[in-house]
Amino acid sequence: TATSSTSPSSKCGTSSSSSATPAATSSFSSRRRSVSIDSSAASVSGRRVRMRSGTSPTIRAAATAAVNWLRVAELADPNQWVSPTAATTAAAAFISSSQPPDPFPFRQLSFGCPPWTSPRSTPNSNTLISDTTTVLCLDDYHLNDRAGRKKSGLTALNLAEQDFDLMYEQVKALKDGKAVEKPIYNHVTGIFDAAEKIESPAILILEGLHPFADERVREMFDFKIYLDISDDVKFAWKIQRDMAERGHSLESIKASIEARKPDFDAFVDPQKAFADVVIQVLPTQLIPDDNEGKILRVRMIMKEGVDNFEPPYLFDEGSTISWIPCGRKLTCSYPGIKFFYGPDTFFGEEVSVLEMDGQFDKLEELIYVESHLSNTSTKFYGEITQQMLKYQNGPGSNNGTGLFQTLCGLKVRELYERIAETEIVVAA
Fold first, then answer.
1. Which residue ranges of the chain lie beneath pLDDT 50?
2. Cis-peptide, bond into residue 325, ω within 30° of zero
3. Distances in Å between the alpha carbon of 410 and those of 89, 228, 299, 339, 379?
4. pTM of the entire structure?
5. Which of 20, 182, 250, 367 is buried most, with the most CB atoms less than 10 Å from its CB?
Protein backbone atom coordinates (compact mmCIF):
# COMPACT_ATOMS: atom_id res chain seq x y z
CA THR A 1 0.00 0.00 0.00
CA ALA A 2 2.29 2.36 -0.39
CA THR A 3 4.12 5.41 -0.96
CA SER A 4 4.18 7.87 -3.75
CA SER A 5 7.48 8.87 -5.19
CA THR A 6 6.25 12.39 -5.76
CA SER A 7 3.54 12.84 -3.17
CA PRO A 8 1.38 10.47 -1.18
CA SER A 9 -1.72 11.40 -3.11
CA SER A 10 -3.01 8.81 -5.56
CA LYS A 11 -4.42 9.47 -9.01
CA CYS A 12 -5.35 6.06 -10.26
CA GLY A 13 -5.77 5.35 -13.91
CA THR A 14 -6.49 8.87 -15.10
CA SER A 15 -5.38 11.59 -17.46
CA SER A 16 -7.07 14.71 -18.74
CA SER A 17 -8.31 12.82 -21.78
CA SER A 18 -8.65 9.39 -20.31
CA SER A 19 -10.59 6.37 -21.34
CA ALA A 20 -10.71 2.90 -19.88
CA THR A 21 -7.60 0.89 -20.50
CA PRO A 22 -7.13 -2.87 -20.52
CA ALA A 23 -5.83 -4.40 -17.32
CA ALA A 24 -4.26 -7.70 -16.39
CA THR A 25 -6.23 -10.61 -17.74
CA SER A 26 -6.60 -14.26 -16.83
CA SER A 27 -9.17 -16.90 -16.01
CA PHE A 28 -9.05 -18.27 -12.52
CA SER A 29 -10.87 -21.07 -10.76
CA SER A 30 -14.43 -21.14 -9.53
CA ARG A 31 -13.27 -20.96 -5.93
CA ARG A 32 -13.72 -17.42 -4.63
CA ARG A 33 -10.29 -16.42 -3.49
CA SER A 34 -8.20 -13.30 -3.44
CA VAL A 35 -4.67 -12.16 -4.05
CA SER A 36 -3.35 -8.77 -3.06
CA ILE A 37 -0.54 -6.82 -4.65
CA ASP A 38 1.04 -3.45 -4.38
CA SER A 39 0.70 -1.66 -7.67
CA SER A 40 0.95 1.85 -8.98
CA ALA A 41 -1.58 4.29 -10.26
CA ALA A 42 -1.66 4.41 -14.04
CA SER A 43 -2.13 7.33 -16.35
CA VAL A 44 -4.56 6.26 -19.02
CA SER A 45 -4.69 7.58 -22.55
CA GLY A 46 -6.41 5.66 -25.30
CA ARG A 47 -5.35 2.02 -25.09
CA ARG A 48 -2.05 2.60 -23.30
CA VAL A 49 -0.95 2.89 -19.69
CA ARG A 50 1.58 5.71 -19.71
CA MET A 51 4.20 7.24 -17.46
CA ARG A 52 3.69 10.84 -16.46
CA SER A 53 6.07 13.15 -18.28
CA GLY A 54 9.28 13.84 -16.47
CA THR A 55 9.33 10.55 -14.62
CA SER A 56 12.91 9.57 -13.83
CA PRO A 57 14.19 6.05 -14.63
CA THR A 58 14.58 5.21 -10.95
CA ILE A 59 10.99 6.14 -10.20
CA ARG A 60 9.88 4.06 -13.16
CA ALA A 61 11.88 1.15 -11.77
CA ALA A 62 10.12 1.22 -8.41
CA ALA A 63 6.69 1.70 -9.94
CA THR A 64 7.32 -1.18 -12.30
CA ALA A 65 8.37 -3.41 -9.44
CA ALA A 66 5.07 -2.69 -7.74
CA VAL A 67 2.64 -3.09 -10.55
CA ASN A 68 4.18 -5.59 -12.93
CA TRP A 69 5.15 -8.35 -10.54
CA LEU A 70 2.62 -10.48 -12.42
CA ARG A 71 4.61 -10.53 -15.66
CA VAL A 72 6.00 -14.01 -15.32
CA ALA A 73 6.36 -16.91 -17.73
CA GLU A 74 4.60 -16.52 -21.06
CA LEU A 75 2.86 -13.27 -20.19
CA ALA A 76 2.35 -10.75 -22.95
CA ASP A 77 4.28 -9.53 -25.95
CA PRO A 78 7.05 -7.37 -24.42
CA ASN A 79 6.80 -5.00 -27.36
CA GLN A 80 3.27 -4.16 -26.28
CA TRP A 81 3.97 -3.75 -22.57
CA VAL A 82 3.94 -0.18 -21.25
CA SER A 83 5.06 0.73 -17.77
CA PRO A 84 2.68 2.26 -15.22
CA THR A 85 3.12 5.66 -13.63
CA ALA A 86 5.51 6.67 -10.86
CA ALA A 87 3.02 6.93 -8.01
CA THR A 88 3.24 3.59 -6.23
CA THR A 89 0.10 2.55 -4.41
CA ALA A 90 -1.30 -0.56 -2.85
CA ALA A 91 -3.45 -3.00 -4.71
CA ALA A 92 -5.43 -6.11 -3.99
CA ALA A 93 -6.40 -8.67 -6.59
CA PHE A 94 -9.44 -10.75 -5.91
CA ILE A 95 -10.14 -14.05 -7.59
CA SER A 96 -13.90 -14.38 -7.80
CA SER A 97 -14.77 -16.37 -10.88
CA SER A 98 -17.56 -18.83 -11.53
CA GLN A 99 -16.08 -20.02 -14.82
CA PRO A 100 -13.76 -23.01 -15.37
CA PRO A 101 -10.05 -22.25 -14.99
CA ASP A 102 -8.10 -21.26 -18.08
CA PRO A 103 -5.33 -23.82 -18.66
CA PHE A 104 -2.95 -20.90 -19.39
CA PRO A 105 -4.25 -18.24 -17.01
CA PHE A 106 -1.12 -16.09 -16.92
CA ARG A 107 -0.36 -16.07 -20.64
CA GLN A 108 -1.64 -12.53 -21.16
CA LEU A 109 -1.41 -11.21 -17.62
CA SER A 110 -0.06 -7.72 -17.95
CA PHE A 111 -1.09 -4.06 -17.96
CA GLY A 112 -1.67 -2.08 -21.11
CA CYS A 113 -1.53 -4.98 -23.55
CA PRO A 114 -3.82 -6.04 -26.41
CA PRO A 115 -6.07 -7.83 -27.20
CA TRP A 116 -8.31 -6.34 -24.52
CA THR A 117 -10.93 -3.71 -25.18
CA SER A 118 -13.11 -1.85 -22.75
CA PRO A 119 -16.85 -2.48 -22.86
CA ARG A 120 -17.40 1.01 -21.47
CA SER A 121 -16.87 4.49 -22.75
CA THR A 122 -17.13 6.48 -19.52
CA PRO A 123 -14.63 9.23 -20.37
CA ASN A 124 -13.28 9.96 -16.90
CA SER A 125 -13.47 6.48 -15.41
CA ASN A 126 -10.58 5.35 -13.25
CA THR A 127 -11.56 1.73 -13.83
CA LEU A 128 -9.53 -0.51 -16.13
CA ILE A 129 -11.42 -3.43 -17.65
CA SER A 130 -10.50 -6.47 -19.71
CA ASP A 131 -12.46 -9.62 -20.47
CA THR A 132 -11.71 -11.15 -17.09
CA THR A 133 -10.12 -8.42 -14.97
CA THR A 134 -11.30 -5.18 -13.40
CA VAL A 135 -9.00 -2.71 -11.66
CA LEU A 136 -10.74 -0.38 -9.23
CA CYS A 137 -9.07 2.79 -8.02
CA LEU A 138 -9.76 3.40 -4.33
CA ASP A 139 -9.82 7.15 -4.95
CA ASP A 140 -13.37 6.49 -6.12
CA TYR A 141 -14.22 5.75 -2.49
CA HIS A 142 -13.26 9.19 -1.20
CA LEU A 143 -15.96 10.42 1.17
CA ASN A 144 -15.86 14.00 -0.11
CA ASP A 145 -14.89 15.73 -3.31
CA ARG A 146 -12.11 18.33 -3.46
CA ALA A 147 -14.36 21.14 -2.23
CA GLY A 148 -15.61 18.95 0.61
CA ARG A 149 -12.08 18.21 1.74
CA LYS A 150 -11.29 21.91 1.64
CA LYS A 151 -14.17 22.46 4.07
CA SER A 152 -13.17 19.59 6.33
CA GLY A 153 -9.54 20.64 6.31
CA LEU A 154 -8.48 17.02 5.83
CA THR A 155 -6.34 15.54 3.08
CA ALA A 156 -7.28 12.59 0.87
CA LEU A 157 -4.82 10.50 2.87
CA ASN A 158 -6.87 10.82 6.04
CA LEU A 159 -8.94 7.75 6.89
CA ALA A 160 -11.86 10.02 7.79
CA GLU A 161 -12.04 11.04 4.12
CA GLN A 162 -12.64 7.46 2.89
CA ASP A 163 -16.02 5.76 2.54
CA PHE A 164 -14.93 2.35 3.84
CA ASP A 165 -18.52 1.15 4.30
CA LEU A 166 -19.24 1.56 0.59
CA MET A 167 -15.86 0.09 -0.34
CA TYR A 168 -16.54 -3.01 1.74
CA GLU A 169 -20.10 -3.43 0.49
CA GLN A 170 -19.13 -3.15 -3.16
CA VAL A 171 -16.05 -5.35 -2.94
CA LYS A 172 -18.06 -8.00 -1.14
CA ALA A 173 -20.83 -7.77 -3.73
CA LEU A 174 -18.35 -8.14 -6.60
CA LYS A 175 -16.80 -11.16 -4.92
CA ASP A 176 -20.28 -12.59 -4.51
CA GLY A 177 -20.88 -12.30 -8.25
CA LYS A 178 -23.06 -9.17 -8.17
CA ALA A 179 -22.78 -5.97 -10.17
CA VAL A 180 -22.37 -2.61 -8.41
CA GLU A 181 -22.87 1.06 -9.24
CA LYS A 182 -19.42 2.41 -8.38
CA PRO A 183 -18.73 6.13 -7.94
CA ILE A 184 -16.18 7.88 -10.14
CA TYR A 185 -13.89 10.50 -8.62
CA ASN A 186 -12.79 12.88 -11.37
CA HIS A 187 -9.17 13.88 -10.74
CA VAL A 188 -9.38 16.70 -13.26
CA THR A 189 -12.44 18.49 -11.88
CA GLY A 190 -12.18 17.25 -8.30
CA ILE A 191 -15.84 16.22 -8.19
CA PHE A 192 -17.71 12.93 -8.51
CA ASP A 193 -19.05 11.98 -11.93
CA ALA A 194 -22.08 9.78 -12.47
CA ALA A 195 -21.60 6.26 -11.11
CA GLU A 196 -20.63 3.44 -13.47
CA LYS A 197 -21.91 -0.14 -13.47
CA ILE A 198 -19.20 -2.69 -12.72
CA GLU A 199 -19.89 -6.36 -13.32
CA SER A 200 -18.32 -9.05 -11.16
CA PRO A 201 -15.05 -10.05 -12.88
CA ALA A 202 -12.87 -13.12 -12.72
CA ILE A 203 -10.15 -10.99 -11.15
CA LEU A 204 -10.76 -7.80 -9.20
CA ILE A 205 -7.79 -5.56 -8.43
CA LEU A 206 -8.04 -2.71 -5.97
CA GLU A 207 -5.39 -0.02 -6.11
CA GLY A 208 -5.08 2.98 -3.90
CA LEU A 209 -3.65 4.24 -0.65
CA HIS A 210 -5.89 2.41 1.83
CA PRO A 211 -6.58 -1.18 0.77
CA PHE A 212 -5.53 -2.68 4.11
CA ALA A 213 -6.85 0.06 6.40
CA ASP A 214 -10.35 -1.41 6.85
CA GLU A 215 -10.33 -4.77 8.60
CA ARG A 216 -13.40 -6.03 6.73
CA VAL A 217 -11.76 -5.50 3.35
CA ARG A 218 -8.38 -6.66 4.57
CA GLU A 219 -9.75 -10.02 5.69
CA MET A 220 -10.85 -10.83 2.15
CA PHE A 221 -7.25 -11.10 0.93
CA ASP A 222 -5.27 -14.28 0.56
CA PHE A 223 -1.98 -12.52 -0.10
CA LYS A 224 -0.78 -8.95 0.24
CA ILE A 225 2.31 -7.16 -1.04
CA TYR A 226 3.38 -3.67 0.02
CA LEU A 227 5.87 -1.44 -1.79
CA ASP A 228 7.79 0.68 0.71
CA ILE A 229 9.96 3.43 -0.73
CA SER A 230 12.17 5.06 1.89
CA ASP A 231 11.97 8.78 2.57
CA ASP A 232 15.58 9.25 1.43
CA VAL A 233 14.92 7.66 -1.95
CA LYS A 234 11.66 9.55 -2.44
CA PHE A 235 13.41 12.80 -1.60
CA ALA A 236 16.26 12.07 -4.03
CA TRP A 237 13.81 11.22 -6.81
CA LYS A 238 11.68 14.29 -6.18
CA ILE A 239 14.74 16.55 -6.22
CA GLN A 240 15.89 15.03 -9.51
CA ARG A 241 12.51 15.55 -11.10
CA ASP A 242 11.38 18.86 -9.66
CA MET A 243 14.70 20.69 -9.67
CA ALA A 244 16.30 19.29 -12.83
CA GLU A 245 13.18 18.96 -14.93
CA ARG A 246 10.70 21.48 -13.51
CA GLY A 247 12.92 24.20 -12.11
CA HIS A 248 11.54 24.07 -8.56
CA SER A 249 13.64 25.30 -5.67
CA LEU A 250 15.03 22.97 -3.03
CA GLU A 251 13.06 24.84 -0.37
CA SER A 252 9.73 24.38 -2.16
CA ILE A 253 10.44 20.68 -2.66
CA LYS A 254 11.19 20.19 1.02
CA ALA A 255 8.05 22.09 1.99
CA SER A 256 5.92 19.96 -0.33
CA ILE A 257 7.28 16.74 1.14
CA GLU A 258 6.96 17.88 4.75
CA ALA A 259 3.37 19.03 4.23
CA ARG A 260 2.25 15.54 3.21
CA LYS A 261 4.50 13.45 5.42
CA PRO A 262 2.44 13.57 8.67
CA ASP A 263 -0.70 12.16 7.02
CA PHE A 264 1.27 9.60 5.07
CA ASP A 265 3.00 8.43 8.24
CA ALA A 266 -0.27 8.33 10.15
CA PHE A 267 -2.65 6.76 7.64
CA VAL A 268 -0.77 5.02 4.81
CA ASP A 269 2.54 3.72 6.09
CA PRO A 270 1.11 1.64 9.01
CA GLN A 271 -0.66 -0.65 6.53
CA LYS A 272 2.61 -2.38 5.65
CA ALA A 273 2.32 -4.24 8.96
CA PHE A 274 -0.50 -6.27 7.38
CA ALA A 275 1.41 -7.25 4.24
CA ASP A 276 2.70 -10.76 3.65
CA VAL A 277 5.56 -9.42 1.53
CA VAL A 278 7.09 -5.95 1.77
CA ILE A 279 9.43 -4.75 -0.97
CA GLN A 280 11.57 -1.96 0.46
CA VAL A 281 13.39 0.43 -1.84
CA LEU A 282 16.31 2.01 0.02
CA PRO A 283 19.45 4.04 -0.69
CA THR A 284 22.50 1.99 -1.62
CA GLN A 285 25.04 1.17 1.06
CA LEU A 286 27.71 0.59 -1.59
CA ILE A 287 28.34 4.32 -2.15
CA PRO A 288 29.02 6.37 1.01
CA ASP A 289 26.59 9.28 1.46
CA ASP A 290 24.85 8.62 -1.85
CA ASN A 291 21.99 11.04 -2.40
CA GLU A 292 21.10 10.46 -6.05
CA GLY A 293 18.89 7.39 -5.71
CA LYS A 294 20.21 5.87 -8.93
CA ILE A 295 21.72 2.78 -7.31
CA LEU A 296 19.18 1.04 -5.09
CA ARG A 297 19.21 -1.41 -2.21
CA VAL A 298 16.03 -3.45 -2.40
CA ARG A 299 14.79 -5.81 0.31
CA MET A 300 12.09 -8.47 -0.02
CA ILE A 301 10.69 -9.01 3.49
CA MET A 302 8.58 -12.18 3.66
CA LYS A 303 6.38 -13.34 6.53
CA GLU A 304 6.76 -16.88 7.70
CA GLY A 305 3.76 -19.21 7.98
CA VAL A 306 1.62 -17.59 5.25
CA ASP A 307 -0.82 -19.99 3.58
CA ASN A 308 0.26 -21.12 0.11
CA PHE A 309 3.52 -19.16 0.28
CA GLU A 310 7.03 -20.48 0.89
CA PRO A 311 9.68 -17.73 0.93
CA PRO A 312 12.59 -18.06 -1.52
CA TYR A 313 16.05 -18.15 0.00
CA LEU A 314 19.74 -17.81 -0.84
CA PHE A 315 22.09 -20.79 -0.40
CA ASP A 316 20.73 -22.26 2.86
CA GLU A 317 17.24 -21.75 4.28
CA GLY A 318 17.26 -20.09 7.69
CA SER A 319 20.94 -19.16 7.60
CA THR A 320 22.38 -15.66 7.50
CA ILE A 321 24.27 -15.06 4.25
CA SER A 322 26.20 -12.05 2.96
CA TRP A 323 27.41 -12.59 -0.62
CA ILE A 324 29.39 -10.49 -3.09
CA PRO A 325 29.10 -12.45 -6.37
CA CYS A 326 31.32 -10.17 -8.44
CA GLY A 327 34.26 -11.90 -10.08
CA ARG A 328 34.77 -14.41 -12.82
CA LYS A 329 31.12 -15.40 -13.15
CA LEU A 330 29.44 -12.00 -12.69
CA THR A 331 30.60 -8.75 -14.25
CA CYS A 332 30.34 -5.86 -11.81
CA SER A 333 31.29 -2.26 -12.49
CA TYR A 334 31.45 0.26 -9.64
CA PRO A 335 29.92 0.09 -7.05
CA GLY A 336 29.35 -3.64 -7.51
CA ILE A 337 26.58 -5.93 -6.22
CA LYS A 338 25.94 -7.36 -2.77
CA PHE A 339 23.29 -9.86 -1.69
CA PHE A 340 22.00 -10.66 1.78
CA TYR A 341 19.65 -13.30 3.14
CA GLY A 342 18.61 -14.10 6.68
CA PRO A 343 15.89 -14.29 9.34
CA ASP A 344 14.55 -11.18 11.04
CA THR A 345 11.45 -9.75 12.70
CA PHE A 346 9.13 -7.14 11.20
CA PHE A 347 6.32 -5.57 13.22
CA GLY A 348 6.69 -8.42 15.67
CA GLU A 349 6.37 -11.11 12.99
CA GLU A 350 9.00 -13.67 12.02
CA VAL A 351 10.23 -12.92 8.50
CA SER A 352 12.89 -13.93 6.00
CA VAL A 353 14.72 -11.18 4.15
CA LEU A 354 16.28 -11.26 0.68
CA GLU A 355 18.28 -8.18 -0.26
CA MET A 356 20.07 -6.95 -3.35
CA ASP A 357 22.21 -3.80 -3.40
CA GLY A 358 23.50 -2.60 -6.79
CA GLN A 359 22.65 -3.50 -10.37
CA PHE A 360 23.61 -6.00 -13.06
CA ASP A 361 25.96 -5.01 -15.87
CA LYS A 362 25.13 -8.04 -18.02
CA LEU A 363 21.64 -9.33 -17.35
CA GLU A 364 22.35 -12.71 -18.92
CA GLU A 365 24.80 -13.34 -16.07
CA LEU A 366 21.85 -13.31 -13.64
CA ILE A 367 21.70 -17.07 -14.27
CA TYR A 368 24.68 -17.38 -11.92
CA VAL A 369 22.74 -15.67 -9.11
CA GLU A 370 19.59 -17.61 -9.95
CA SER A 371 21.47 -20.89 -9.57
CA HIS A 372 22.07 -20.04 -5.90
CA LEU A 373 18.45 -19.09 -5.15
CA SER A 374 16.06 -21.80 -3.96
CA ASN A 375 12.32 -22.08 -3.50
CA THR A 376 11.76 -19.64 -6.36
CA SER A 377 8.74 -21.51 -7.83
CA THR A 378 10.30 -21.58 -11.29
CA LYS A 379 9.17 -24.22 -13.78
CA PHE A 380 12.61 -24.74 -15.31
CA TYR A 381 16.25 -23.79 -14.75
CA GLY A 382 16.84 -20.20 -15.84
CA GLU A 383 13.21 -19.03 -15.86
CA ILE A 384 13.97 -15.97 -13.73
CA THR A 385 16.80 -14.96 -16.06
CA GLN A 386 14.60 -15.60 -19.09
CA GLN A 387 11.89 -13.32 -17.75
CA MET A 388 14.33 -10.58 -16.81
CA LEU A 389 15.90 -10.73 -20.27
CA LYS A 390 12.49 -10.64 -21.92
CA TYR A 391 11.93 -7.23 -20.34
CA GLN A 392 15.53 -6.07 -20.26
CA ASN A 393 14.64 -2.70 -21.76
CA GLY A 394 12.02 -2.08 -19.09
CA PRO A 395 12.69 0.02 -15.99
CA GLY A 396 14.07 -1.89 -13.04
CA SER A 397 15.18 -4.83 -15.13
CA ASN A 398 18.80 -4.60 -13.98
CA ASN A 399 18.30 -4.18 -10.22
CA GLY A 400 16.49 -5.57 -7.20
CA THR A 401 13.14 -4.07 -8.13
CA GLY A 402 12.99 -6.16 -11.30
CA LEU A 403 14.43 -9.27 -9.65
CA PHE A 404 12.00 -9.21 -6.74
CA GLN A 405 8.98 -8.36 -8.89
CA THR A 406 9.80 -11.45 -10.94
CA LEU A 407 10.14 -13.56 -7.81
CA CYS A 408 6.80 -12.23 -6.58
CA GLY A 409 5.19 -13.10 -9.89
CA LEU A 410 6.46 -16.66 -9.75
CA LYS A 411 5.26 -17.04 -6.16
CA VAL A 412 1.81 -15.70 -7.10
CA ARG A 413 1.65 -18.15 -9.98
CA GLU A 414 2.36 -20.94 -7.51
CA LEU A 415 -0.22 -19.52 -5.11
CA TYR A 416 -2.80 -19.61 -7.91
CA GLU A 417 -1.94 -23.22 -8.70
CA ARG A 418 -2.45 -24.22 -5.09
CA ILE A 419 -5.72 -22.33 -4.68
CA ALA A 420 -7.13 -23.44 -8.03
CA GLU A 421 -5.75 -26.96 -7.67
CA THR A 422 -4.41 -26.86 -11.21
CA GLU A 423 -1.03 -26.65 -12.91
CA ILE A 424 0.12 -23.98 -15.32
CA VAL A 425 2.10 -25.44 -18.23
CA VAL A 426 5.00 -23.21 -19.29
CA ALA A 427 7.26 -23.69 -22.31
CA ALA A 428 10.96 -23.40 -21.50
1. 1-10, 13-121
2. no
3. 21, 20, 17, 20, 9
4. 0.70
5. 20
